[in-house]
Amino acid sequence: MLRSAAVTLLALVTLAACSDDPASDAEGDRGEAGTLELVSAEIEAEPPGDVAEGTRYVVTVNLTPGVEWSDGTPLTAQDFLGQYDILWAQQAGLWESLTDVRATSETQLVFEASELSMNVMRQILRSNQTAASSQFGDIYTRLNQLRTSGADPAGPEVAAVLEELDAMAPTDPVAYGPFVIDPSSVTAQQMRMVKNDGGFNADKIGFDRVDVAWGQTQQTVPLILQDELDYTTDALTPSDVQAVEAKPNIELIRTPLGTGTGLWFNESIKPFDDKRFRQAVALVIDRERNAKVSLGDAGKPIEHMAGFSDTYVGDWLSEDVVAALNPYERDEAEATRLLEEAGLVKDGDTWTYDGEPLAFEITAPTDFPDFLASGKDVSAQLNEFGFQTQVRGIPAANRPDTILQGRYEAILDFSLVSAPEHPATSLDWNMAAGFFGTNNPESEGSKGLNWPWQQQAPDGTEVYIPDLLAEAVAGLDEEPQQAAVETLAQIFNDQLPVIPIFERWTTDPIAHGPRVTGWLASDHPVYENNQANDPYVAMQLLGGVLRPAEGADGSFHTSAAYAQPPNFSWNYYAGNSMYNTLTTPSYHATLPPLMWWSNAIDAWVACVAESYSVAEVG
Amino acid sequence: MQLTPLFTLIGRALVRTVLMLWLVASVTFLAIRALPGNPVDVWVQELQGTGLSAEDAREQATRLLKIDVDQPLWTQYLDYLGNLARGDLGDSVILSPGTPVTDMLGERLLWTLFSISFALVIGFLIGLYLGSLAAYRRGTWVDRLITNVSALMSSIPAVLLGIVLTFCVGVAWDLVPIQSLRGAYSPDVQPGFDLDFILSALAHVIAPGIVYILVSFGTWALVMRSNALSVLADDHVGQARARGLSERTIRVAFVQRNARLPLITGFAISMGFVVSGSVLVERIFVYPGVGQLLADALARRDYTVMQGVVVATTITVLLATAIADALYGWLDPRTRIEQHA
């Protein structure tokens, strides 16, 4: 509250200051936009040769030749193979799908897998960057020998190598991206990335350096307002947005983020277990008002109530299914009817259940300001309708325990999650055990949400939710997945195990000058990407789309709340690795991925790898 | 004073200090672990924010963190107390695994002492002066101005003042680059004992220093005014005036000296708390002090670092209190007489 008041006050001060600043108007020149073509990097697959036992798919990835690490050694397929051997040694879940990984040449990696899904493809092509063989080559080789000789990853030999890996303390960062961190520049307030001339696409990128200011919203908003940042992913509050938007050279990129809030009821408590009660609550909540109060224009009320982002609905649900979904538009009369059917009685202005006023607590994380605001507004709306609710704030760090143990009556938490980008990600979060043990109705211990997994599909057949969720993500072919997603969406819409409220859209500020120009126009398909998953700014920076403005000093300024010195290691694989604390675009500027996913063309596009293919065995 | 009572006094003080330390250390140990959300959970949430799926984030966090959050509480407690008895605050488990907490504290402590202690002393002296002035000018516009400004400044949270200062000076009035308000020294200066570095460090301490001074002087001024008014009403001040002593002598020798005595302990304790820094102010100005370290440790649930900061703060507060007691004896002869008696 204090911070909000302060920021509002300061936004007003700043607005006043900016409105009569003639220099700001001059900076409104947006320059000529660059170009970025989004093309699928998939190529025709060769028939697979000999493969490991159990292999059904072979994914071949071809690296862009000629890329060098900042220490002058070439980037090779062996570097990436080393990363996968480490993942094997660490018994990563990915190796439940992989049967082998090989480097067949300096620039070709071959992945053999028993099963493929979007999640596995994402792990192969996007998620796993690597560290240099010049630093970790010995470890890579020894683990590869252990894996290919059939060693047990849980055995003592592997554990000993992992111990060595953990203890390694390289003195300098080494990167294959166009920029590498200058270790002497890392201070509490800023770090500098300097050009790695042999790094990926270095010759196409006009900037000499990337300056990364330490901080989050509180520290970075003043920097944005003083033209000291060209881009940040920090979430701006509505009052921050007002202040930032007043600057003519700043453009806010507004794209769906795939996350958002929802109201959960602990169904171990009556009458929360009655779907009519939850449907009534959905009919009472004004989602538009709630979104506006919580996030201003960055909050978009959920329209379809399908259990996942509205942005996926067109691609995943047929028109008939969409038409059959209840949008739960505000309707107090219908809500009253449902509540009375569920056994609630209105006594004067107060709803009662079993003779007692219906009173409950709505738990909300205090350090997610939009969630807290949303919770308070939901509480106010329900109280206006005749419930007796109050908000209890908890630190966000307490969410896992609170959710897992079902220590809430109602809780304001996520109803949308999007990594990986698939409707099943949110559906799993809302309906199944999710990650924090969201819903565990069959557990002997804590049941969390306690919404039953035995449900009835719209056609009357009995379905088991975990099985349907597994069907929804099986394989790479979306058609069979779609049937499962449609069934799940309809069950969700009827049952409302969680009541979705709004989806968060980004308000990422990009600065047209004084340092950077060439930003793609806001209607470019790259902005259909999810900022958190396949960030559109990193794609523009690494693609050479962005360029230094005329007369600028050749630097690109961004921010990250990186590990403060001396609390970090240059060991890429260490728990306190500096790289773990970087965000986009700084992380990708130094360690770019093999590929990016493009939502606009539904395909993987080239980055450090120039192409890939998928072959089915047999 | 005979030696035996002296040893008894010292012995009692030592026992009291050790008990206090044990109590604070134990309560801290339990309170930190009572916080829901362990380091693994916190890390998982952060990793999810970078685009990893929930399962992948959990897997990566478990893989990277070497902490055993399921170790029995008793085992952790006994290890902790054993280490503490040897003067070992343990090693960081999350922020910098394996690094001794004392090293981490040492690195940050200098900056915190540099930024806060001078500001506290200046704020204290300004408060004493303004409080005395308000008391002498009781009922005049000077009194009303000092009292109201002091009350206002002491009620503004430091964090709010920090934000306002940053925005006004850096953004609205555009007087200085925001970068010059961030950190302990400029990014283009290398740490070392040379003029560039010293000037840069001094320039960077101005903003947090001003905040500390502005939020601290008001309280001292109000307390000093109240004490001075009380002393001014004492009989001995009236007698001094009747004896024809000059107003200046009365102010210095009678009023100020007696009025500031009760403030000494408060000031000493506030100096003791310097160790924990000002978490929020250091955060705003990205100042690499102990407060930032504590904030990072809290956010990442680095149990040993959190414990270390609290224990170090307790030790310095106890030390500061002991120093205040000694100073009290020196400043107030009556306490010396009571001790001798």
Q: Can you describe what's shown?
A:
The complex is a heterodimer of chains A (618) and B (341). By secondary structure, chain A is α+β, with helices and mostly antiparallel strands. Chain A is 33% helix and 21% strand. Chain A has 20 helices and 25 strands. Chain A has a 6-stranded mixed sheet, with helices on both faces. A 4-stranded antiparallel sheet of chain A has the order 2-3-1-25, covered by helices on one side. Chain A has a 4-stranded mixed sheet with strand order 4-5-6-22. The relative contact order of chain A is 0.18. The model of chain A is unreliable at 1-27 (pLDDT under 50). With 341 residues, chain B is mainly alpha-helical. In chain B, 76% of the residues lie in helices and 0% in strands. Chain B has 14 helices and no strands. In chain B, α5 runs antiparallel to α10 (247-272), α6 (141-155) crosses α8 and α7 packs across α8. Chains A and B meet through α1, α4, α7 and α15 of A and α2, α3, α7 and α12 of B.
CATH homologous superfamily (4th level) name of the domain at 109-299 in chain B: MetI-like
- Give the strand tally of chain A: 25
Secondary-structure element series of chain B: HHHHHHHHHHHHHH
CATH architecture of the largest domain in chain A: Alpha-Beta Complex
Q: What is the makeup of the main sheet of chain A?
A: 6 strands, mixed
Compute the separation of the termini of chain A in Å.
62 Å
Determine the mean pLDDT of chain A.
Answer: 90
Highest-level CATH class of the largest domain in chain A: Alpha Beta
Corresponding CATH superfamily of the largest domain in chain A: Dipeptide-binding Protein, Domain 1
Number of separate helices of chain B: 14
Radius of gyration of chain B: 25 Å
Largest sheet of chain B: none
Low-confidence stretches of chain A: 1-27
- Return the structural class of chain A: alpha+beta
